[in-house]
DNA sequence: CCTGTAGTAGACCAGTCTGTATATTAAGAT
DNA sequence: ATCTTAATATACAGACTGGTCTACTACAGG
């Protein structure tokens, strides 16, 4: 093989970075090419699907990276609230380090490209699912032995097979993910980390702790 | 004044709609013009600041509209959880009615334009602030008499002046807003309302209810 | 040595982008 | 009736878009 073999990966990484900070439509291929140091021909050789394919792969890559980091942080502690707080701290560091340009690597693309491209939308949804799964597992590991509330325990016929509160944990993981995503969105827009701290401070109540 | 006098407002409304569904960079001025039935000259007459000014005004308008709707819904009930659930229902209807194109009218622009334009970013931040204020007032009206937790009551010197739980209510409103924003983001990306329902179901726990 | 091919390099295309400049029209004032 | 101004209507400019095309380079196998 001629010259370099890492061109493809470099392009995806560059694209992921730019999409992360600017979104899909605000990022031109020329910018990706310039920043990645590759000519146009190479792009369409490696990505015959063009910008759309590049975005799908970039989203998947960024999602994997953050999922890995999330797993590492969450598995490092026994306290579910503590684990999630460390995840929030990680996101806060990313925000600060990038002058509030790097929030959620998926959200921008999800919002500004899913109207255009169904494949991109699906890729983003898949990433969110994977994150939610990690969070749910984390919660299951530590708080599944609780009665898991019961405010809506009427309309569940016999859905939960194995664990008793599995459906409830999924719901809880959805809420946790939503709160985190919203906090990152607010923090990025306000250029201020306090939304992350607020969510962190209220995680205890959200997870059903007596009062923190 | 010649011809029409509503051209300006029509343009802002059209722009707000398109920015809402597609974001800032994905929406071309030609599309705004075509959909609003106005020529280019009129746009730069009414908005000498060009696309940026149009976006700032569109964001403010959309933010005002939703703030009004939010106020109406929240003032209609005495139960804070019930009120927020109705707000979630409203957002869910908007999503469904628009085939999941209309989520938060601010988020898309906030994410894909605040890297480019400081004025747009500020406009978005202002809208979020206004929404948060509405939520905080709503919470203050109904739950301010609670002890307002205290899991992190160590590093607060003497911030809260007037009401005892005011700072705590602000924090809580931030978390509520974040959770709602995140839920809308997830719902739009997944094309599925369940994140909204999940947040609704957990609002009680989040607001400090015993386990309701 | 020669050829096939993976990959690179960049010119090029048609279309679109935001923004500007120049008419043209309609109303209000004098 | 005329002059001014608010507003509309287009034509146009220059830059940039994503995408295609062809030429070229470097390596591998025969």
Automatic annotation (TrEMBL), chains A, B:
DNA-binding region: 28-47
SUPFAM superfamilies attached to this UniProt entry: Homeodomain-like, Tetracyclin repressor-like, C-terminal domain
Keywords associated with the record: DNA-binding, Transcription, Transcription regulation
GO MF term set: DNA binding
One Pfam family, short name: TetR_N
Highest taxon listed in the record's lineage: Bacteria
Region (Disordered) location: 147-167
InterPro entries (alphabetical): Homeodomain-like_sf (IPR009057), HTH_TetR (IPR001647), Tet_transcr_reg_TetR-rel_C_sf (IPR036271), YxaF_TetR_C (IPR054156)
Protein name: TetR/AcrR family transcriptional repressor of lmrAB and yxaGH operons
Organism: Saccharothrix tamanrassetensis
């Amino acid at each position: 093989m001629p010259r370099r073999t890492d061109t493809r990966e470099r392009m995806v990484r560059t694209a992921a970075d730019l999409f992360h900070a600017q979104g899909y439509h605000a990022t031109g291929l020329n910018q990706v090419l310039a920043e990645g140091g590759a000519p146009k021909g190479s792009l369409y050789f490696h990505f015959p699907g063009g910008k759309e394919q590049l975005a799908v792969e970039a989203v998947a890559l960024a999602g994997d990276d953050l999922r890995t980091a999330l797993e590492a942080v969450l598995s490092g502690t026994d306290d579910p609230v503590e684990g999630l707080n460390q995840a929030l701290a990680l996101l806060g560091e990313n925000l600060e380090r990038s002058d509030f340009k790097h929030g959620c690597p998926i959200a921008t693309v999800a919002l500004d490209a899913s109207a255009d491209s169904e494949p991109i939308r699906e890729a983003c949804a898949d990433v969110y699912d994977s994150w939610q799964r990690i969070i749910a597992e984390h919660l299951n590991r530590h708080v599944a032995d609780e009665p898991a509330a019961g405010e809506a325990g009427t309309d569940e016929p016999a859905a939960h097979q194995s664990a008793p509160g599995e459906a409830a944990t999924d719901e809880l993981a959805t809420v946790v993910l939503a709160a985190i995503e919203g906090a990152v969105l607010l923090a990025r827009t306000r250029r201020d980390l306090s939304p992350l701290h607020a969510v962190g401070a209220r995680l205890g109540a959200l997870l059903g702790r007596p009062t923190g």
